[in-house]
Amino acid sequence: MNEIHNKLKNIQDSYNDLLNENKNLKIKIHEKSNEIYDIQNSKNIRLLYNTISNFSTNLSNKSIDESFISNSVPELVSSLRNISITFNKSGSILSDVLSDLTQQFIYLLNKTKENDQHRNKLLNEIEKLKKELNGITSKLEKEKNNNNELTKTNKVILENMDKVTNANKNLKEKMNNYIVQIQDKNKQISNMNDQINTMNKQITRMKPDSLVGSLQKRIQEGNVKLETIGSEYRKIENENNKLKISIKSINDQYSTVRKENQERSIEISVLKEQLEKEVQNYEELKNQQVSLLDEVK
């Protein structure tokens, strides 16, 4: 961006140089008018001086455009030629001076016209450059805003990932605790089975009437404990499923953001290529302007 602004400054400097050259050309016209006034204070010379002086005054007060060139210049040239004819008839040695002066005026005016045309071209190029710079600036600002939003989204995702990590850690601890509890319950069940087997052996040797009530009671207690263990296990399984769903949702968000990051990177690369191309175009424009300035000089 700094390089483009430097190119814009160089174009503005070239424009200022053209303005200064036009100013110098106008000063030269006034100097020629003063030279004529100093040659001889005769009627024809006075007429010549007044003609050139009026034209010089108009030149100082007006901008050089097509209207001025098409109206004032022919009038001046016609006046100069009429005065030249008068000089030739009288055999004045000033006829050669006047003829040369006329050519110098025409050259100066053409030079001024060329400079004004080049100045207008520079102004148009400057306006184009400003519009393109504004467009690039808008794109970069939009990309900056998008990146800011993307940064916020990434921050939220990182926070969620931290939460997931902590949740996994807590879940792992709970699972370990539940596993220990289940192992304890399994041991209890195993012990109860051993007791039941022992009781079954006793039943085979004894009448069941005296032991049926006690056995049924212990079996019911064992079933209640088994149901409690199963309920706790199902609760753990439900929590684990919810956590899996939450992790999947966060992973989907992360994949979407990662894809958007890749797309943003591609857009930034395209903008960078466009900017480099614009810089190259402005470098070529600068070279053309230098060539034009060399021709004007």
Task: Report on this structure.
By secondary structure, the protein is an all-alpha fold. The chain folds into 2 domains: 138 residues, no CATH class; 142 residues. The two termini are 31 Å apart. Keywords: Coiled coil.
Topology:
Blueprint: H1 2-39, H2 43-61, H3 66-90, H4 94-205, H5 209-296
Helix pairs in contact: 1-2, 1-4, 1-5, 2-3, 3-4, 4-5
Keywords: Coiled coil
Coiled coil: 1-35, 112-202, 226-295
Shape: rod-shaped
Query: Largest sheet at a glance?
Result: none
Count, helices: 5
Mean pLDDT: 68
Count of domain modules: 2
Cα-based radius of gyration, to the nearest Å: 50 Å
Helix content: over 70%
Give the end-to-end Cα distance, rounded to a whole number of Å. Answer: 31 Å
Helix and strand sequence: HHHHH
Q: Which structural class should the secondary elements be placed in?
A: mainly alpha
> Which consecutive residue ranges, at least 5 long each, have pLDDT under 50?
36-41
**Beta-strand residue percentage:** under 5%
Give a count of the beta strands, DSSP E runs of length 2 or more. Answer: 0
Concise summary:
This protein is mainly alpha-helical and 297 residues long.
